[in-house]
Predict the structure.
Amino acid sequence: MNTRVAVVAVGGNSLIKDEKHKSVQDQYAAACESMHHIADMIQEGWNVVVTHGNGPQVGFILRRSELARHELHEVPLDACGADTQGAIGYMFQQALRNEFKRRGLKKEAATVVTQVLVDRADPAFQNPSKPIGSFMSQADARPKIEIEGWAMIEDAGRGWRRVVASPQPKQIVEVNAINSLIRESFVVISVGGGGIPVIENEEGDLVGVEAVIDKDYASSLLASSIGADLFLISTAVEKAALNYNKPDQKWLDRITLAEARQYQAEGHFAKGSMGPKIQAIIWFLERGGQQALLTNPENIGRALAGQTGTWIVP
Ligand code: ADP
Ligand code: MG
């Protein structure tokens, strides 16, 4: 039996399938579908650590917080991160538990609220670039900038939007807890939304910051930190492609680290979507990782059997 460890980073499509299906019930239904595929993997003997995004869910919390401002305190971004890790972890834990019961598998899932250390001197803090929350008018944006000190940008006619820093993840704070759970053969859900970004202050205490860590980068760091045998990125496409969406599109089956670097440099992988995934995989392999796979949830089983997906190897 296979007892290797895989970090599986699930994409936004594992919770929100389309614009019309965003309610919590819809998200749970989507989570059940994705966890079904992950349970297949677990049944094959893989020890799995699931990581996930939280962009839309943080957006919902911020919007509620904004609408309720006259009555209730607003929610800081690090607390939004913790809230969504808990809520999404809950959905995954329940979906997995129900899958295990149906299959007669003696397995349990547990969520670790995960902090991720970033460097307070990270240049990203000087250049906030990640848009979050809703669009607003210039009149509404002004006090946010002047009184609350937000960085805001005007987004091509759609209005003003807050931007926060997207620093590099340096260390998974709860890595020992995650490792212990894996050793006890728990399925672990962690590093949700890229983790809650924290810095170390002058006294060496951790403090949450108003920033967002890329979930693919944080998942890659986690995979390296626990010495995972496989880093699997589950997203909305079966494979990565060269010349994506162009007439000469070419799906990639198996590429080397050197090829991944070359195609990345040639601009084949879009900046806000496939680019960070390939970068995350490059870093995992550079830190000694042995194999990475990119595919969509429904093809995880076939991809692990070598029949599809994009494999990236040293
Ligand atoms: P996730 O929520 O999983 O992070 P993203 O939307 O950020 O998903 O990234 C996945 C998307 O990247 C795919 O759905 C696809 O539209 C897009 N994409 C961009 N470039 C490529 C490429 N070269 N090959 C395949 N997909 C690509
Ligand atoms: Mg993404």
Notes: The pocket of magnesium ion (ligand 2) is lined by residues 273 (CB under 6 Å). The first helix runs from residue 24 to 43.
